[in-house]
Design a protein that fits this description.
This protein is an all-alpha fold. The protein has one domain. Helices cover about 65% and strands about 0% of the residues. The chain contains three helices and no strands. It is flat.
Length: about 90
C-alpha cells in the first residue's frame, strides 16, 4: 500500500487478501536471506534474484498447503523455471 493512506478493509474478503499479501511479503523476505546459501556457487545470488526465487518458493508452498497436494507446488516451481532442455 505504498503511497496510499491506510484504511480499514471493507469486508472479510478484503482483509484476508491484505493479510495474505502481508504474510507472503514477510515469508519472501525471510526466505530470500537464506536462499543464497542453498544455490550452488557457480551463479552468485544477489538480493534481487534471491527475492525472485523466494517468491516462487513461497507461492509453491502456499499452493501445496491450500490444495493439500505437494505436486501442485512442484508444478508451480517447474512452470516458473520455464522449459527444460530434454536430454
Amino acid at each position: 500500500m505504498s503511497g496510499e493512506e491506510h484504511r480499514a478493509p471493507e469486508n472479510t474478503r478484503e482483509f484476508l487478501a491484505l493479510w495474505n499479501d502481508a504474510v507472503e511479503e514477510h515469508l519472501v523476505s525471510e526466505l530470500a536471506q537464506s536462499l543464497p546459501g542453498l544455490v550452488p556457487d557457480e551463479r552468485p545470488v544477489n538480493a534481487a534474484r534471491a527475492a525472485g526465487l523466494a517468491r516462487h518458493v513461497v507461492r509453491a508452498l502456499r499452493l501445496a498447503a491450500l490444495s493439500g497436494d505437494a505436486a501442485a507446488g512442484v508444478r508451480h516451481l517447474a512452470d516458473a523455471g520455464g522449459p527444460r532442455d530434454p536430454k
